[in-house]
Design brief:
The chain has 198 residues and is an alpha+beta fold. The chain contains five helices and seven strands; from the N terminus they run βααβββαβαββα. It is globular and about 55 Å long. Pfam families: Acetyltransf_16 (PF05301). InterPro entries: Atat, GNAT_ATAT.
Length: 198
């Protein structure tokens, strides 16, 4: 998606991490102009994501990010014409969920959740999605099986099966989806027992 303003400040790296300040994580100064640019991007990309998922309203916007402790990964690309375009977004956040394993036992855990994932239609099937996902996983030192996914589309479920061999869903009593392998992960066991990773 192309925008009619200078994106050079957020396109120094292909993937930029944004928090509820509406600025890149680690950005050292107050910058209302950059916040306005990022807000515009998040609103437009969030709207496009909502349309792609056939949602009644977007689940990502600048205001929603500002009021949360979520993290958003924004992917950009330099075109041969010298422009910067926004390729996709990935929104993540911790949530306390009641989870059922495949035996039907219920437990409560803090889980890192995939809340929104969108690659612009003009850039799909070119490897951008897996690059963005792998960046996020490496940044958080976790594996895909440790995630809960909020209302995944069939396309996202196919993506997780293709790249991470995750296909065995465990039905939950909420909008989140987890996989059988989730309960085998160290991250889950540590969260369940109340100990964070050091």
């Amino acid at each position: 998606m192309e925008f009619q303003f200078d994106l050079s400040q957020i396109a120094q790296q292909q993937i930029v991490k944004i928090d509820n300040t509406l600025l890149p994580v680690g950005y050292q100064k107050d910058d209302p102009e950059l916040q306005m640019i990022i807000s515009n991007i998040l609103d437009k990309m969030g709207e496009a994501s909502g349309i792609a998922q056939e949602l009644k309203s977007p689940i990502t916007s600048a205001e929603k990010l500002r009021r949360s402790d979520h993290t958003l990964y924004l992917m950009t690309e330099h075109t041969p014409q010298g422009h910067v375009v926004v390729v996709g977004l990935l929104k993540m956040g911790w949530k306390k969920l009641y989870l059922f394993n495949k035996k039907g036992s219920r437990t409560e855990a803090m889980v890192y959740c995939l809340l929104d994932f969108y690659i612009h239609e003009t850039r799909q099937r070119h490897g951008y999605g897996i690059k963005l996902m792998e960046y996020m996983l490496k940044d958080n030192q976790i594996q895909a099986r440790q995630l809960a996914v909020d209302q995944p589309t069939n396309k996202l479920l196919q993506f997780l099966w293709k790249y991470f061999n995750l296909s065995k869903l465990v039905n939950q009593g909420n909008n989140f989806v987890i996989f059988e392998e989730f309960f085998e992960s160290d991250g889950y066991l540590e969260k369940e027992s109340g100990h964070d990773r050091s």
